[in-house]
Task: inverse folding
């Protein structure tokens, strides 16, 4: 019987689009992606459950998404979390998600937040 190795396929998966990467990652039962809507501000948050610290996410990230930030820079400035990465590279998105980052899409931009379990 041939076994499917998600992470091995993952490393070899090349994509030119964020949507393709996220669709590929969603094949894992450990991958979570959800949308939040706060007063007409829409956020898409994606991560691997076992790689991030959910306490930090709930305490330090989600409440700040609810603030009325008119620009991405303003939102990022208000976050009490270091280690943010802005990217337009789908390969970097995949790589960082596999290392314990959360991907957050907002205001037509995508940034990665380091919430690795220490």
Result:
């Amino acid at each position: 019987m041939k076994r499917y190795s998600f992470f091995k396929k993952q490393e070899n998966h090349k994509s030119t689009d964020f949507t393709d990467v996220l669709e590929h990652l969603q094949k894992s039962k450990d991958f979570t992606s959800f949308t939040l809507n706060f007063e007409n501000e829409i956020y898409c948050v994606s991560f691997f459950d076992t790689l991030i610290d959910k306490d930090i996410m709930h305490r330090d990230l989600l409440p700040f998404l609810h603030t009325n930030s008119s620009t991405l820079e303003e939102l990022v400035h208000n976050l009490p979390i270091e280690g943010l990465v802005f990217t337009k590279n789908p390969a970097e998105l995949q790589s960082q998600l596999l290392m314990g980052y959360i991907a957050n899409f907002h205001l037509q931009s995508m940034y990665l937040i380091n919430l690795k379990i220490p």
